[in-house]
Amino acid sequence: MVGKTLTASIAALVFISGCSTISQKEAFESVNQLTSEQGGKNLQWIKTPQEAASVDESVKALLSKPLTQENAVRIMLINNRALQQTYENIGIAQSELVEAGLMRNPLLGYSIGRSNGVTTSTLSVEVAFLDLLWIPLRRELGHLALEETTLSVGDTVLRSARDAKKSYIDARLAEEKGALNRSILKSHEASLQLAVRQYTAGNLSKRDMLKVQESYERERIESIKLARDNAAAREALNKILGLYGSQTHYTLSTEPLTRMEPAVSESGLEKRAIVNRLDMRSAIKSVDYAALQAGYSENTRLLDELELSVESEKTTGEKRFNTFGIKLPIPLFDFGQARVSKTQAVYNQNVHRLYETAVNIRSEVREGYAHLRYTFDIARSYDEVVVKNNQQILEETQLFYNGMLDGIYELLEDQRRLGEVKMEALDALGDYQKAQADLEYTIGGKL
Amino acid sequence: MGHDRRDFLGLGAALIATAALGSKAEASEHDHAGHESKKRQLTLVKNPKRVLSPATLITPQEGKNYNPVVTLNGWSLPYEMKEGIKEFRIIVEPVVREFAPGMVVNCWGYNGTSPGPTIEAVEGDRVRLIVTNKLPEHTTIHWHGLILPNGMDGVGGLTQVQIAPGETYVYEFTLRQSGTFMYHPHADEMVQMAMGCMGMFIVHPKAPKAHKVDRDFCFLLASYDVAPGTYTPNPSTMTEFNIWSFNSRVFPGIDSMNVRVGDRVRIRVGNLTMTNHPIHMHGHPFEVTCTDGGWVPKSARWPEVTIDIGVGQVRAFEFVATEEGDWSLHCHKSHHTMGPMGHSVPNMIGVKQDDLTEKISDLMPDYMYMPMGKNGMAEMQDMVEMGMKIPENTLPMMTGKGPFGPIEMGGMFTLVKVRKNQPKGDYSDPGWYEHPNGTVAKKMN
Ligand SMILES: [Cu+2]
Fold this sequence. Notes:
Bound molecules: copper (II) ion
Mean pLDDT of chain B: 85
Distance between the termini of chain B: 59 Å
Order of helices and strands of chain A: HHHHHEEHHHHEEHH
Order of helices and strands of chain B: HEEEEEEEEEEHEEEEEEEEEEEEHHEEE
Radius of gyration of chain A: 35 Å
Low-confidence stretches of chain B: 1-55
Low-confidence stretches of chain A: none
Oligomer: heterodimer
Mean pLDDT of chain A: 89
Structural class of chain A: alpha+beta
Radius of gyration of chain B: 22 Å
Largest sheet of chain B: 8 strands, mixed
Number of helices of chain A: 11
Number of strands of chain B: 25
Number of helices of chain B: 4
C-alpha cells in the first residue's frame, strides 16, 4: 500500500518536473531572430559532422567569388569557432533549465538489525518534499537564465559581425593601398632610371643621382611595409572568418567602398540603442533574475530543508510498523538572513549595472555618432577637395612640363603625390566605414 | 591731326578684337573688354585701363616741322598749344598690356599703355607736362637725359614733393637740346619700373634738315618677371626675369620695321631693364649716331653690327637700307630671345628617354606625355605646333614661325624688312620676303 503511494508520488514528481522546457533549437532560432537585422540570418550551429560538412560547403561557395563585406560576415557567422563556443552556452543554459525542473531525488534507506534471533529491518524513503513547491520558481529562474544567455549570445554574434566587418575593411584597405603604392613605386623607378641615365650621360652629379636612388629605395621599403601590413590584415580576416588552408586563397571584391552622409543628428539613436542593444536587454534579464532569486531566498529561508519521510519497520514475528516523519531545520544558528541579504546585494548590484550599462551605451552612441560624422567629413574632404586638388595640381604641372617650365622629375613627383593623397583618402574612407560598423553595433541596428 | 587719343584707343582695341583673345570690339577710355571671360585677372586697383595690343599708329605728318618717330606697337602723345606752350597731359595709372596674343600683364603705365606714349617735341619748345597720379602710391616723373631746371628733374624727395595718389603736378621747361630721351618715375622706382612705368621722349632738332632720316623708329627694352600662370610682374625680382621685351611686346607679337630700299633708317633704343643688351642687326652694318647725351659727331662714329646698350642708356643707330630681305634684329643674349623657361629643368641632352615613355604614360593615362630635351630644346616648338597646352597666360619658350618653318625665337626679337617697292612713308607690313631664285641656302645633294 505504502509502496504504491510512494511510487505514484514519485511518478507524479517526475512528470511535473520533466515537462515543458524549451529546446536548444528554439533558443538558437531566437538568436537568429535577434540578430537578423544586422545580417545574423542563417546562423548555423555546428553540432554534427554532417553540419560541419554543410558549413564547409557554404563557405566554399561564398569564397568562390570575390569576397564582399556581406559575405565575409556570413562566413564568420557560420564558420567562426569562437562563436560556435558561445552557441554552446545556449546548450548549457538549456540543460540547466531542464535540471531546474527536476525534483531532488528521494533518499531510499534500508537498515537491518539482528539480536537474539530477532531481525528488525527498516525501509525508509525521505523526500525533500518542499522542493516540489520550489520547482516552478526554479524553472522560472532557469527560463530567465536561458533568455539572458540567448541575448548575450546574440550580442556576441553582433559584436563578432562588427569585428568581421572591420577586419574586412582593413584587408580591403591594405590591398588597395598596395595597388596605389605600386604606381608610386613605378614612378620612383622611372625617376631613378632617368637619373642614372642623366648621370651616365654626364648631366647629373653623382650626389643628385644618389638622392634620387635613396628616395626610390625608401619607397621600396614603404612598399614592403605595406605588403607586410596587407599580410597581417588578411590573416586577421582569415582568423575571424575561421579560414585555413586552401580556403585562404580567396580574392577580395573590388567594388568601391561607399560613403553615405550620416543623418543630420543623432536624435533617436540613443533610444534605439537602449531598446535594441542585446547586452542591454541581457542586463535587464539579469536584474529580473536577481529579483526572482532574492524572492526565492526570502521564501525558502527557513523551510527549504523541510523533509518528509516514511519509515516501514518489520521485526521478526511482529506486525509491520509504519512511521511518518517530518524534519524541520531549527533556525537557531542560521536564520537564512545571510543568504537573503546576499541575494539582495546581488540584486542591487545588477540594478546598478543596468544603469551603468544604459549610461555607457548612451555615451557610446553619442561618441560613435560624432566619430562617424567627423570621419565622414574628413573622408569627404579628401575625396572632394584634397584628391581633386592634387589632380588639378598634376594637370597644371603637366602644362608646366609642356612649357619646359618644369622638368620630368617635378611631373613624376606630383604624380606620386596624387597617389599618396589617394592612399590617405582611402584610409579616411576606411575610418568612416569602420565608424559606421561600430555605430551600427552600438545602436543595435542598421543606420 | 586727324587722330586724337580717343580715336586711337578705339582703333587699337578694334585691331586686337580680331586677335585670338578679343571679345568685345568696342572700347572706350575705360575699356574693360577683352579678356574677362573665363580668365582670372588680378587687378591692383579697381578698373585698370585696358588697351590691348595697340598696333603702331602713324601720326600724320602734315603741319609738322619734324619727321615723327614710329614707336613699335605704340603711339605719340598728342598735345595742345597753349599760349605758345606745348601742353601734354599725362596720367600715371594701372593698365593691362597685351605682350603677345595669349598673354596679358597687369602693368602700371601712362595714358592707358605701358610703355607710355612717346612724347615728341622740337628743340627750343617750351613744354608743359601735366601729370596726374592714378596709381595706388605716390610717384614722380624724371625726364631722363634732358637739361632742365633742377626743380623739374622729378626726383621725389630731392627736387620735389612726391605726387600723391589723385594729385596732379605740372612740369614746365624749355627743351634745350635735341636727341633721344626717356621718362620714368623716380619714386619707388624699383616697383614702378618693374611694373612698366616708362616711355620715350624724342626731341627733334630745330632745323628740320639736321640729322634727317627717312624712317625713324624707337622702342624701349623692358624686362618683367611674370611667373608662369600669373598676370602680375613680381616687382622684387632682381635678376631672374623671364619676359624680355621690345616696348613690352614679345616676338612674334611685335611690329616689324618695314623700310624701302635706299631709306636712311634710324633705330632708337632705350634700356630700362636691369641688365645690358647687345642689340644685333643682320644684313647691314650701322653707326651709332646718338645717345641720351646727344648726337655723336660724325668723325667719332664707327661701324658696328651689334651695339651693347647699358642699363639706363639710350643708343640710336643709323644705316642705309641697301640689302633687300627680312633681317633679324635682336638682343644677342640668347636667353633674351626666349619666353619663360624653368630654371631647374633637368639637362636631358643625350639622355635616352623614349623607352620610358610608356611607363610614364601608364602613370598618367589622361596625359599625352612626351619626353623632352634629349636632342636640345627645339622640340619645344614641335610641342607647341602639336597644340600642347601650357599654363594660362604664359608664352611658349620658343615660338615664331617664318616662311621656312619655326623661327624658335621669342622675347627681344623683331625684323627689319627691306623692300624695293615699299612706298615712302608706308609702314605697313609687306609680308615675307620672296627670295630671288638661287639666293636661298639649300640642301647639298
Ligand atoms: Cu638682352
